[in-house]
Known about the structure:
- Its cofactor is Mg(2+).
- This protein has a single domain (about 1-195), classed as Maf protein (Alpha-Beta Complex), CATH 3.90.950.
- About 30% of the residues lie in helices and about 25% in strands.
- The chain has helices at about 10-20, 45-60, 95-105, 175-180, 180-195, and strands at about 1-5, 25-30, 65-75, 115-125, 135-145, 160, 165-170.
- Helix 1 (about 10-20) links the parallel strand 1 and strand 2 (about 25-30).
- Helix 1 (about 10-20) crosses helix 5 (about 180-195) and helix 4 (about 175-180) crosses helix 5 (about 180-195).
- The longest helix is centred in the N-terminal third of the chain and has 16 residues, at about 45-60.
- The protein starts with a strand and ends with a helix.
Amino acid sequence: MKLVLASNNVGKLAELQQLFAPLGIALVRQAELGVGEAEEPFFTFVENALAKARHAAAATGLPAIADDAGLCVEAFGGLPGVATAYYATRFGYEKGDANNVRALLEQMAGIDDRRAALVSTLVALRSPEDPEPLIAVGRAAGQITRAPIGENGFGFDPVMWLPQFGKTFAQLPPELKNAHSHRGQAARAMLALMRERWT
């Protein structure tokens, strides 16, 4: 089965391709099919993922899957949440992973409550009008470090400390990260839903 991935994020594509391979699902980035980014005007991950999946399915005629993910920091009332990708721009930096990490560490400099969670919501549709989208959520809770640690991964991986491993996501090998990450959890739940409902 071929699914269009409603994202142009190469890191997401690589992680999801590895996770979906056992089901024989081939993921194709929407950019490879000439599809632009969808609007993401909502305040929740599920609404934005649904909007992205509908956009990609409508533009390609293929079943689509979208991921909306972000960092939810307890001390900030759950923010940046859906605005995670643009977090750095709120503080005068250009959009990008390194600047997001920099801005986060600056904003948390005097904060002792370092609890946070990376959250991923996957939505899959058979068509843009699918009345029963498949929805899977993964959540990886940890603490924000005071400086980046580790070389692997992307996004906030270098500052997301996982107490159960005594390491950040950026210090874990890819197979261990995928087994415990928010996106890995959501992908496994989505695979179970697809097996049950679509195959």
